[in-house]
Amino acid sequence: MNKLAKLFVTFLSALTLTLASISSSFAKVEGDYIVLGAAVSLTGKYSSNGVHTQNGYNLAVERINSMGGVEVGGKKYKFEIIYYDDESNSGRAAQLAERLIKQDGVKYMLGPYSSGLTKAMAPVTEKYKIPMVEANGASRSLFTKGYKYLFAVLAPANLYLDVAIDLAVEKNGGKPVKVAMAFEQDAFSQDVRLGILDAAKRTGSKIIIDDKLPKELNDMASTLAKVKATKPDVLVVSGHTKGALTAVRQIAEMKVDVPMLAMTHCDAAKLSKQHGKDSEYALCASQWHKTLSYKDKFFGGGKKYDKDFTKEFGYAPPYQAAESSAALLVYKDAFERANSFDTTKVRDALAATDMQTFYGNIKFAPGGQNVSKPMVLFQVICNKDGSSCENKVVAPTKWASAKLVHPIPSWSKRK
Amino acid sequence: MDFLIFQAPMLMVQATMDGLILGIIFALVAYGMALQWGVMNIINIAQGELVIMGGYVGYGLYIMGIHPAFGVLIAPIIMYCVGWGLYKLVINKVVDRDLFISILATFGISILAQQLMNFSFGADVVVAKSNFGTLALFDNSVTLPMSKLFSAGVCVISAVILVLYMKKSKLGRAIRATAQNARAAKILGVDTEKVYAATFGINAALCGIAGACVAMTLTLHPYTGLPYTVRSFMIVIIAGLGNLPAVAISGMGLGVFEEWSDYLLGTQFRIAAVFSLLVIILVYRRFQLARKREYLT
Q1: A279 contact B CB<8A
Q2: At B180, which CATH number?
């Protein structure tokens, strides 16, 4: 190929690229479609939760579209989502946010999975003043930066387990309790820890163990030995799925007797499926549970959502999926109230959201977090031989479907 | 909290036992690393991924309804083949090149292995339950899970077999000869290509055994291989190349040191403590070497 031909090819490809980017820059509303952008983790270490997120989004899109879509300015629109795989990598997530906004012309964003990735994307969406409704970033620091365009349908991380401390105090006859904590050193778990510290201060409880587990650690034997020696009233563990699985395995192996065990990520870790009877009596923080009595017209209630989701995807929805579905309901509501596609107006409508979904009540605080939906605690309860275990909501009392088993029977009496 | 050690002296016994057991498993991984580092002069960044892969073999058996303990027999066989295959595909092209190239190549292998495991087993953290029960000592104040004791036993036996094999068998002698001087070994009729492939295979098999133990005692996740690589690297650095008994001692010593620092300083300092120790040892080594050099000149 001679020089001229090379130059021509380069010119041609540049032209094609420009045309391609021009044609897609009207993508915010294309015909009858409102286009939302999302980067979710389809590969990499968050891929299972990333897929839950995507499934939750998709189920809601399908449901809203089939039930008439979104009405703006007297015209019906449907939702469509452009997905990219962020590879569970926060650098990539930030890049993809740029790409969605700059190249694909997306004007409304959905959140990725995990606090870390949301943290990476929020500055980008904020810079371009693009609203982002996210469902899987609970870290408190997301809501203290003064972001104006970030809205989270879930309760912030510091509220995950403080209910457990209140519950323990209540069971102790209102007297302060001794708390042992083991938290992984990541943003989310450390926020959960701050919540516990607040709760301990409020109730006058004493923290007797405060272990911060290095991220790469998958052994908690030494923390548990300390628990055994100091006999706290509550043991609180947060370290994503790995932390939950490690804690339950080693508590059972080391026969650690503790009256109350509170954790996060039990259902994401498939705790009762993987550990069976060993996981019994663990208390788990959850954003959502199918037995809660919230309702909306798209999914009915939690049980109906559970059924529909299971039918569509072949597994029961973890709360990560439910909250993702709720994000779409929030968008639909906001678009209709704004009655416009102007991002500022949509943003203002989002900020004024006050609604109930099957997932819970949604109302955003000035920082963007959802303040009107409390966390629930469920307890793993198994049948006699441990072949099947169920998660029963035990707190707050308003939604309790079972009575809390407290204290946890000692290992010598179990089995 | 600060005086936990006085409140519960039995904790130190527990810590020592936990550390020893953990150290033994790490030492086996380090054995493999020392072996192939010594023979082929390759630092294998994918060492941890080989461990996790072995773990998934154990987990695979477990979900098929077979007891995961059989993993310690099956995993080394499968992993030997994996190691041999990796050698033929990638490692043989970098074995004579400089260290940097081989680090890059094995780093690539580690990324590929992570993604493949993620693809085939999913990104969930998984465990294989052994249901071995627990050994309780001193009125239940020291508990040793039988699965951990079993793993430690398996690792010790594998290490002993390896040492004997290296001493007595023909291949073992060939491997040692190649490690001492590859060119001379080649001249004397040793098929070094075969020796390298076997060494890499044996290394992978050792990782497989350790991995099967990890599946039963700890947790598995496609992306958690790195700590095993780093730990075994550290053990080898402290022990020195080609010094297999020292690998065992430094492995166990590091395990115990780590658990003790957890009790005395707090969990958040355990890894920091281990790495500080590494720095101290390396600095000490340097001084020692410098002194020796002075005597020589």
Answers
A1: no
A2: 1.10.3470
